[in-house]
Design brief:
The structure is a single chain. The protein has a single domain, classed as Growth Hormone, Chain: A (Up-down Bundle), CATH 1.20.1250.20. It is 83% helix and 0% strand. The protein contains 16 helices and no strands. Helix 1 packs antiparallel against helix 5, helix 3 packs antiparallel against helix 14 and helix 12 runs antiparallel to helix 15. The protein starts with a helix and ends in a 6-residue tail after the last helix.
Length: 409
């Protein structure tokens, strides 16, 4: 397959995979009402269920990222989407909350293996000028898939929650053979594979070698704190809104607004990161995060105002994620890009695990929706500061490369 065909097919297939991943990632949150009615789990059990897939995501990202630097991005991606499709179908057959937790953890293995591959493949198939926009487009497909899951939940009765997992399983299983046949392997990986010296360098310690320790640590901490916020909101926002007096349709509508706002902002920041307004876009994103969280917590309980605040918060949260996912693959050379992105995503999954569980603990302690959101404010401020520091180091590294002095001192 020609290089031109590779560059055109790879982003298209990666967007399709990201849509499927977005559906599966948010299936647990949008199915929560039906699961609660059928199995009557405690808030703490709900928190464990929400966190289960992210335990698998952590392991899947580490294992998949390391394998990708040895056997290729394509093989790991195809295996990962087949895995999360299969276990999503099994989720629809669960008979109690315990079996739900175990199957969701196994689903997470596939989800975790797929995401680093999407980022690596898109980065390696794009020219430098279009990398940010293409990576952001792929990432934006994930909240779009989440919005589709929320719309599906609005159209079905609560007892039919299993259908969400059926859809989340069938789509990736249909997509996997298409990718196996037509998705091209990364040309950059094939070139690196021919150099056995650089392949031996593709290991975990290499992430801290040659001045990369600073960017690696900042990536990890930024991912952890930002994903803690994102996954707590994705899993608990519908439940919090229902507890605040809104009905199921209104809660799902606010969740759709959260996701669609994120799609728009992710695409926008991807475009801006490639131009002269990138510093302004980054600053607005991370400064607005704590402000919008306070607004959502303190606004009167009118659906229109709450939905607008949720949409704007989704814009900021998912723009922040788009920035991190854009930075991660360009932070490392090809020979260690798989493990580099995989490790960053995996470390972020610690936040994904803690976030839903933290929401369950705070709710069990009697914290209402407004108080629970305000409890997150220190986390949001710390995450924004770390991400801004990372952005400064990335910009400094660019200037350093231009002047020819050592990178990331």
């Amino acid at each position: 397959m020609s290089n031109c065909e590779s560059k055109s097919l790879t982003p298209f297939f990666c967007v399709l995979v990201a849509l499927c991943e977005g559906i599966d990632l948010q299936a647990a949150g949008v199915a929560a009402a039906g699961i609660g009615d059928e199995f009557r789990p405690s808030p703490d059990q709900f928190g464990t269920f929400f966190s289960a897939s992210t335990v698998g995501l952590f392991l899947g990202a580490i294992i998949g990222g390391r394998l990708a630097d040895s056997i290729g991005r394509k093989k790991v991606l195809v295996a990962s989407i087949a895995l999360f499709g299969f276990f999503s179908l099994l989720t629809s057959l669960a008979t109690d909350i315990r079996s739900l937790i175990w199957v969701r953890a196994l689903t997470g293995l596939g989800l975790g293996g797929a995401l680093p591959m999407l980022l690596a493949l898109v980065t390696e198939s794009s020219v430098a000028k279009s990398q940010s926009a293409r990576v952001a487009t792929v990432y934006a497909a994930m909240p779009l898939g989440g919005a589709a899951a929320s719309m599906l939940s609005m159209l079905m009765d609560t007892p039919h929650w299993r259908a969400i997992f059926v859809v989340g399983g069938v789509l990736p299983l249909l997509l996997a053979p298409l990718l196996a046949i037509w998705l091209p392997e990364s040309a950059a990986f094939r070139r690196a594979q021919q150099d056995t010296t650089t392949l031996r360098a593709g290991s975990f310690p290499a992430l801290f070698a040659d001045g990369r320790a600073g960017r690696t640590l900042l990536l990890w901490v930024s991912f952890l704190l930002e994903l803690l916020l994102l996954y707590l909101l994705l899993n608990w926002l519908p439940t919090l809104l229902i507890n605040d007096g809104f009905n199921k349709i209104q809660a799902a509508g606010a969740q759709i607004g959260f996701n669609l706002g994120g799609v728009i902002s992710a695409l926008l920041i991807g475009y801006l990161l490639g131009g002269r307004l990138k510093n302004f876009a980054i600053a607005i994103t991370f400064v607005s995060l704590p402000i919008l969280l306070i607004l959502l917590a303190k606004l009167p309980s009118h659906f229109s105002t709450v939905a607008a605040a949720a949409c704007l918060l989704g814009c900021a949260v998912l723009a922040a994620q788009a920035f991190l996912y854009t930075v991660a693959p360009i932070a490392y050379p090809t020979r260690i890009r798989g493990i580099g992105v995989g490790a960053a995503v995996a470390f972020g999954r610690v936040g994904s695990i803690v976030g839903p569980k933290l929401g369950g603990m705070l709710k069990s302690a009697g914290h209402g929706p407004s108080q629970l959101l305000m409890d997150l404010l220190p986390v949001v401020i710390a995450g924004s500061l770390c991400s801004l520091w990372l952005a400064w180091k990335v910009e400094r590294a660019h200037l350093v490369r231009v002047t020819g002095t050592p990178d990331f001192s």
